[in-house]
């Protein structure tokens, strides 16, 4: 039986070690590389490749969604399973539209990881049953689109961090971006959502169940 090559992209060493232990028990998969930085992931796929990329969205610097889109552009045959700390409602649909084959949360990883990998290895897509129902129900006309759905991937990520009460300095450190860049994103978010302050961002996020 041919082993499928898996690359692990997560900035938490303990998470990567845990994933390797789970995968070591499965003869179908072999881990061929790992990294905690998005630029290293992109370098690897520019030079090498893997059958499956297990990708964390929240790594320092470049957005995980940027990594996803880059890998799908240069290695479209790569199947990508997003493993994220963010609830499904926040990012799952965006990652699937960007080319991911599956999305699971870190909270549910121990129960769902192998089920998801086996499904996408066979060419399928994997999301939880509850999310699948939501995605089917959500097929609406564009006029029903909520204001935050016009935000870019990075804008949505920063909006959620602001809504969680994080300061621009904290977000700057977490995403490895300058505070002036974070401030620019914040201004765009306020303008697009017709809001005036962080307090209104928090209220909007709660009302729309983004946090």
Give an overview in words.
The protein has helices spanning 13-24, 38-47, 64-74, 88-98, 109-121, 129-137, 153-163, 168-175, 179-193, 198-207, and strands spanning 4-9, 29-35, 52-55, 79-84, 102-105. With 211 residues, it is an alpha/beta fold. Helix 7 (153-163) crosses helix 10.
Write the layout of secondary structure elements.
Layout: E1 4-9, H1 13-24, E2 29-35, H2 38-47, E3 52-55, H3 64-74, E4 79-84, H4 88-98, E5 102-105, H5 109-121, H6 129-137, H7 153-163, H8 168-175, H9 179-193, H10 198-207
Helix pairs in contact: 2-3, 7-9, 7-10, 8-9
Class from helix and strand fractions: alpha/beta
Number of helices: 10
Q: What proportion of the residues is helical, as a percent range?
A: 40-55%
Estimate the mean pLDDT confidence.
87
* CATH topology title of the largest domain: Rossmann fold
Query: Which CATH class of the largest domain applies here?
Result: Alpha Beta
Measured by DSSP, the beta-strand proportion falls in: 5-15%
Find the count of extended strands (DSSP E, 2+ residues).
Answer: 5
Oligomer, anyone?
A: single chain
CATH H level, superfamily name of the largest domain: Response regulator
What is the alpha-carbon Rg in Å?
A: 18 Å
Shape descriptor = globular
User: Element order, helices and strands?
Assistant: EHEHEHEHEHHHHHH
Instruction: Show unreliable segments.
Output: none
Distance between the termini: 44 Å
Taken together, the total number of domains comes to 2
Major sheet details: 5 strands, parallel
Record the strand order, biggest sheet.
Answer: 2-1-3-4-5
Which CATH architecture of the largest domain would you pick? 3-Layer(aba) Sandwich
């Amino acid at each position: 039986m041919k082993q499928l090559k898996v690359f692990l992209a997560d900035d938490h060493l303990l998470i990567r070690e845990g994933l390797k232990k789970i995968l070591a028990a499965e003869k179908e998969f072999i881990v061929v590389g790992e990294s905690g930085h998005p630029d290293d992931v992109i370098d690897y796929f520019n030079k090498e490749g893997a059958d499956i990329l297990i990708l964390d969205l929240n790594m320092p610097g470049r957005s995980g969604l940027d990594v996803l889109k880059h890998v799908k552009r240069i290695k479209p045959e790569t199947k990508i399973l997003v493993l994220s700390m963010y609830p499904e409602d926040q990012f799952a649909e965006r990652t699937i539209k960007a080319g991911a084959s599956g999305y699971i949360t870190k909270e549910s990883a121990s129960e769902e990881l192998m089920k998801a990998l086996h499904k996408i290895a066979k060419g399928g897509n994997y999301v939880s049953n509850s999310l699948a129902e939501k995605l089917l129900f959500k097929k609406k006309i564009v006029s029903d689109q909520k204001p935050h759905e016009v935000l870019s991937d990075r804008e949505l990520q920063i909006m959620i961090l602001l809504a969680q009460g994080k300061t621009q300095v904290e977000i700057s450190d977490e995403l490895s971006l300058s505070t002036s860049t974070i401030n620019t994103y914040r201004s765009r978010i306020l303008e697009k959502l017709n809001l005036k302050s962080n307090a209104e961002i928090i209220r909007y996020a709660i009302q729309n169940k983004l946090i």
